[in-house]
Amino acid sequence: MLQLTSVDLKKEKTDTLVIPVCEDKTIHEDKTIQFLIKTAKKIEEFKGKKGDEIILYDMTGVKAGRVIFSGLGKLDKVDAEGLRIFSGKTVKTGIKKELTDILIAAPASGKMKMEEPEVIEAILEGACLGNHIFDKYKKEKKLKPIKKICLLVNADTAKKHRKLVSRVAAVCEGTILAREWVTTPSNDKKPEQLARSIVTLAGKVKLKTTILNEKQLKAGKFGSLLAVSAGSQNKPALVILEYNPGNAKKTIAFVGKGVTFDSGGINLKPTSGLSDMKIDMSGAAAVAATLITAAKLKPGKKVIGVIPLVENMPSGSAARPGDIIKSYSGKTVEIGNTDAEGRLILIDAISYTIRKYKPHTIIDMATLTGACVVALGDKIAGVFSPDDKLADAIVKSGKKTHERCWRMPLPDDYKELIKSDLADIKNMSSSRWGGAITAALFLSDFVGDTPWAHIDIAGPAAAAKGGAYCGSGGTGFGVRLLSDLTDRL
Ligand code: BES
Ligand code: ZN
Ligand code: ZN
Questions:
Q1: Which domains are delineated in the chain?
Q2: Which residues are known catalytic residues?
Q3: How many degrees, rounded to 5, is the angle at CA 206 between CA 170 and CA 165?
Q4: What do you get for the CA distance between the two ends of the chain, in Å?
Q5: What distance in angstroms lies between residue 309's CA and the mean position of ligand 3's atoms?
Q6: What pLDDT was estimated at residue 275?
Q7: Is there a contact between 75 and 26 (Cβ–Cβ < 8 Å)?
Q8: pLDDT tens digits, residue range 438-487?
Q9: 367 ligand 1 Cβ < 6 A
């Protein structure tokens, strides 16, 4: 679907050529393209300003039937995200026009403020992600994705960056997979069902897969995870995915919160809080899709994905506020609020992962708190880690991928707020403030000496409104981030 090509525009017959144009500077070396831009800029409504778009047909000098000119704005302001937005938007225009293939003219890297691979990666990423349509539940499929997206570069560049194209394709496929899982309604992704879906796809890329069922979880004493699942008729599952390149020296473990629906349990959420809670397994989706992506990218380290899957429901068999349960670690937890369920399933998954795999680094990803959305809005994830190097690496990956992350504090004295009179710890803070921090501090009590980070993605996991390269619903946030991070650690 994605390809780098070098063709002569004067000779090659293409359906649609796309040319990104800057308002103030020339960004193409090709004389033919420069000539086409000159012609386009003669038209009043197109000046190359950010968001400008004009389509011209049968232009002299090229064999393309249609040329789409798309404005990038001022060159100084163009960054990788600007390029993703450009290509995503162009692909969306192409889809609306029912195009089957497009050829995008890459700007010459020498004329941009970015390195060549960065330019190529960003344009391909935006195009590939913008080409995703979620219409599984529609009888009439009104829009069709573009079949072939080519990036026009010179012959040397095409040869040099072939591997980059397959990397971008793998990472985008992973992101789209996570989006689909997140957007799927809860009635079609009950814990055991989602576990099977994950394991089927993971098996196809030769990951080692394990599912622990309810009986095995009971035998294994996953008391905290089971307490969350107790209110639901749908049984829990714990999925383990392993990528092992053989002689690896390092093991990285990712743990993803997989609450397939979060009603709040006995502390039932109000109507407004319930509507989006099918997305409460976005951490699980991101971790599973990252593992599937890793199997394709083949990093030189062992990568483990641990995915606790439960449904949080109120019923006669549900855990109650005030209950005290025994977690996998042996520590007892007082349930102050059944809606703080994410941390309960995570601590068992984290303790199990550390005991079984002794990873060098463990990172959990979770739609954990509304408080994190209050703090950072719905586009930025919160990062919590006592380890400066690990937190920095995550923030750097966030910058590179534009899956933005902001480091938050883990103040020791706030641990007071999650002390219990009766049990070892409480899942609910005694203060209404700083909820994202106290949730992270709760998790920190179960990681021991293992370098650990927690990424709260409650905001960016889903979008109410679509953007340039993502529709509304699950965003697949985390897959690009964790894939980049895997190489950094
Ligand atoms: N799943 C929610 C957090 C959430 C909120 C995710 C908004 C996505 C969007 C989580 O389980 C939850 O309910 N957290 C409570 C914790 C509270 C009871 C301590 C919250 O944030 O209000
Ligand atoms: Zn909850
Ligand atoms: Zn939740």
A1: 2-155 (3.40.220.10), 170-488 (3.40.630.10)
A2: 269, 343
A3: 15
A4: 30
A5: 11
A6: 86
A7: no
A8: 999 999 999 999 999 999 999 999 999 999 999 999 999 999 999 999 99
A9: yes
The DSSP output letter for 50 is T
Q: Give 298's contacts (C-beta < 8 A, 6+ positions apart).
A: 245
- The span from the CA of 474 to the CA of 175, in Å, is 10
Four-point Cα dihedral 81, 83, 86, 89, nearest 10:
-60
- Summarised one tens digit per residue, pLDDT across range 231-251 is 999 999 999 999 999 999 999
Closest ligand 1 atom, residue 428 Cα: 19
For strands 381-384 and 452-456, give the pairing: antiparallel
51-71 mean pLDDT: 94
Query: To which H or E segment does residue 374 belong?
Result: helix 370-376
Q: How far is the CA of 53 from the centre of ligand 3 (A)?
A: 42
Query: CB–CB of 91/148 below 8 Å?
Result: no
Q: How remote is the CA of residue 60 from the centroid of ligand 1, in Å? A: 58
Interatomic CA distance for residues 94 and 335, integer angstroms: 52
Both tokens assigned to 92: 């969306």
At 29, the amino acid letter reads E
Separation of alpha carbons 352 and 15, rounded Å: 55
d(CA 12, CA 51): 28
Structure tokens at 226: 């089971």
Tell me the C-alpha to C-alpha distance, in Å, between residue 372 and each of 241, 302, 403, 433, 440: 28, 31, 15, 11, 11
Q: Are 256 and 380 in contact (CB under 8 A)?
A: no
Q: Distance between CA atoms of 473 and 417, rounded to whole angstroms?
A: 34
CA torsion sign for 367, 370, 372, 376 is positive
Q: Best substitution site from 310, 346, 368 to test ligand 1's pocket, by max atoms within 8 Å of Cβ?
A: 368
